[in-house]
Each structure stands twice: as structure tokens, then as C-alpha cells.
UniProtKB/TrEMBL annotation:
InterPro entries: cNMP-bd_dom (IPR000595), cNMP-bd_dom_sf (IPR018490), Env_Response_Regulators (IPR050397), HTH_CRP (IPR012318), RmlC-like_jellyroll (IPR014710), WH-like_DNA-bd_sf (IPR036388), WH_DNA-bd_sf (IPR036390). It comes from the Bacteria. Signal peptide: none annotated. Residues 12-132 form the Cyclic nucleotide-binding domain. This is CRP/FNR family transcriptional regulator. It holds the Pfam family HTH_Crp_2. It comes from Paenibacillus brasilensis. Transmembrane segments: none annotated. SMART domains: cNMP, HTH_CRP. The keyword DNA-binding applies.
Length: 231
């Protein structure tokens, strides 16, 4: 599949004509990066807008003690980066591949000109900005409240919305590898306390766990998250 066809699969580009896709292709470069490769650190930031064509990337920050806190996980079709006219709030983040990725980078000047000439595409960009801001605000609010089990339930609910669920009887498997440390990074806790909290959720039969795998009881998870965040 050529790069124009890759671009046509991105959510933001579905409304573009073939002519627009050709123009977009001319200002795009695609790089394949292996797993656990930094796309960016706060010290190596450079202006640019990026699309995840294939794979998944993790966006995180470090606190004063050097502890990682995961802010977002982006999969195929998602966008990140910053330009003069557009900021997705990723300037001060670490952005790392969590599996092999194909990353598309837009030429800054040509892309800004493209936005001006394509108002419908710009409206899609505004929606992405709005959704990202809303999602980050909601995440920060919920992770500042509740006990650790509540935070884990909220994160699992968000992941179940974001990634494919595979049916396993009464449970659904989140199609994304999750170790206890990775969950700890998502909720800003230690691996040891997360392990204890997960054991409690298993006893309540809200989740089941396997090697880097979480199975959720959809009815119980939905009920618990509703009670926690909408009393």
C-alpha cells in the first residue's frame, strides 16, 4: 500500500478528495520506528505535526522523583505535535513507541498553508483539539479524586472505549498489553499498590488478569464507574 492510501485511512483525512490526498502526501514523510524508541523528549522537541500510521505510542511525563505518569496512548490515525497555529499540548512530554510504528510527519509551513486552503479539514482539526483537551481535563479530574481502585476502574473504562474488546464469556479482553507497572504509570501509583488494588478487583469479580492482560466484566465495570463518578 502506498503512502497516499495510508493517509486516506486516517480519521482526519476521510473528507479529503484524491487531489487533496496527493497534495497531503507531498508534504508528508513516513518513518518506521522500532518498539521502545523515543519520538520526542522535552529536550528534543521540534515543531511538527505527526500522525500514527501504524502501531501505538505512549505520551508521558516525569515527576520530581523521576516517576513516569502516562497521559495518553495513541493508536492508528491519532495525531500529536505542535505548530505555530496548532498545539496538541505535547511539547513537554516524552513520546515513545510501545510497538513498531510508522509515523508520518507533516512539513510545518506547507501544512499550515494547507489548513488555510481547506476549511473543512481545519474544522476537523479543531474537533480533535477540543476532544483532546476535554479528554485530558477529564483524566486529570478523575485521577485527582477517589481511591486507587476507583482510579484503576476509570482508566480501564477509558481503555475499553479506546481499544478493541474481545469476548471471553462474561468478560471482555482489552486488546492492549497491560502490565502492573504500565497500569501504575497510568494512575500515578507504585506497582506494588496497584498489584494489591488489582487483587481486590479480581476478588470482586470485576476483572480477571493474565500475563499483561486485563479481562473486564463489562456490566460490573460500567456499574462501578458510574457509581464512582456519578453519585
Amino acid at each position: 500500500m502506498n503512502s497516499i492510501q495510508y493517509l486516506s485511512q486516517f480519521n482526519l483525512l476521510h473528507n479529503l478528495s484524491l487531489e487533496d490526498l496527493v497534495e497531503m502526501d507531498q508534504m508528508t514523510s513516513i518513518t518506521t520506528l522500532p518498539k521502545n524508541t523515543f519520538i520526542q523528549t522535552p529536550d528534543t522537541f521540534s515543531f511538527g505535526l505527526y500522525f500514527v500510521k501504524k502501531g501505538k505510542v505512549r505520551l508521558y511525563k516525569l515527576n520530581a522523583d523521576g516517576k513516569q505518569f502516562t497521559l495518553d496512548i495513541l493508536s492508528e490515525g491519532n495525531v500529536f505535535g505542535e505548530m505555530d497555529m496548532i498545539s496538541l499540548g505535547t511539547r513537554d512530554m516524552y513520546i515513545e513507541t510501545i510497538e513498531e510504528c510508522d509515523i508520518c510527519r507533516m512539513d510545518k509551513d506547507r501544512f499550515e498553508h494547507f489548513l488555510i486552503q481547506h476549511p473543512r479539514f481545519m474544522m476537523n482539526m479543531i474537533k480533535v483539539l477540543s476532544d483532546r483537551i476535554s479528554g485530558m481535563s477529564s483524566l486529570a479530574q478523575h485521577l485527582a479524586l477517589g481511591n486507587l481502585q476507583d482510579k484503576i476502574l476509570y482508566v480501564l473504562q477509558k481503555l475499553s472505549d479506546q481499544f478493541t474488546l474481545q469476548s471471553h464469556g462474561e468478560y471482555y479482553k482489552i486488546d492492549f498489553p497491560l502490565s502492573h507497572q504500565e497500569i501504575a504509570n497510568l494512575v500515578g501509583a507504585t506497582r506494588e499498590t496497584v498489584t494489591t488494588a488489582l487483587q481486590g478487583l479480581v476478588k470482586e469479580k470485576i476483572i480477571k488478569t493474565g500475563f499483561k492482560t486485563i479481562y473486564i466484566h463489562q456490566d460490573k465495570l460500567s456499574s462501578n464507574t458510574k457509581n464512582v463518578w456519578n453519585p
